Amino acid sequence: MIYSMTGFGKSQKELQDLQIRVEVKSLNSKFTDIFCRVPKSLSAKEIDIRNYLTQQLERGKMELNLHLQKNNENVEQSILPQGQIATYFTELKRFATELGISNIDENALYLQAMSMPSLNSSDHSQDNEEEIEALWKVVFEAVQEAVKECKEFRAREGKVVEDKFREYIAAIKSGLAQVLEQDKIRMPGIRERMRNALLELGLKEDFDKNRFEQEVVYYIEKFDISEEKVRLATHLDYFIEILEEGNGKKLNFMAQEIGREINTIGSKANDSTIQRLVVNMKDELEKIKEQTANVL
């Protein structure tokens, strides 16, 4: 079974009053290219997320977006211990009153409280780490669900691509079968064309028969496509076998080998009918090459 590199998955969870939303999408790429948009509070976990994406999705251009929202407001900047901002605000207001400052701007005090770090409180730090770990546990579950959905999307897309591959290979096999039939009448035609060419040059029937036969053999060997026909048939069968393995790189390599044999048949055949069949086979092959670029 093959997998497409195009995929999309999403997941949503809740932790108390916090909404967690994860989206994962992937596109085709020769290499592994990962972009993560993660809140600052979870930036230390980005490496873990990247490793998990590489392990599960293997290859392609991947993008993960993690959104944290609380009461419809973005809370990606930080997660403070319960009541810490209120404590800062109360203390700042008390200090201002003790210092005899009049006309206290409470809005300014509140903004100042929002920007203050933890005042060397080990309990607060421990609480914050525990909250981050609890949050990460739920976030990672959401990441796993989104990736799983993305892989299922890839599998569905891969099944469609696999059916197309089988259709294109069948079309090329049909063209090859017609080439085999045409090749049976092509060789006698070469001999007849050479004989007519000699007669048009004014030579009579009494020309050297032995030399003529030598020339016929030479051209028949030059235009012979027996090996190419066998190799092409083998490559087509092997392409179907690779579909069962699900190896996109192998499929791409075999598509190149199939193209090489088709081109050789076209250049050596020296037959208009076979040339038209070759054009049709190359058209089907181009469709295969377009799809192999998106196969994992």
Automatic annotation (TrEMBL):
It comes from the Bacteria. Its EC number is 3.1.-.-. The keyword Nuclease applies. Its cofactor is a divalent metal cation. Coiled coil: none annotated. GO terms for molecular function: hydrolase activity. Keywords: Endonuclease, Hydrolase, Nuclease. InterPro entries: YicC-like_C, YicC-like_N, YicC/YloC-like. Residues 2-161 form the Endoribonuclease YicC-like N-terminal domain. Residues 187-295 form the Endoribonuclease YicC-like C-terminal domain. Belongs to the YicC/YloC family. PANTHER family: UPF0701 PROTEIN YICC. This is YicC/YloC family endoribonuclease. It comes from Aquirufa originis.
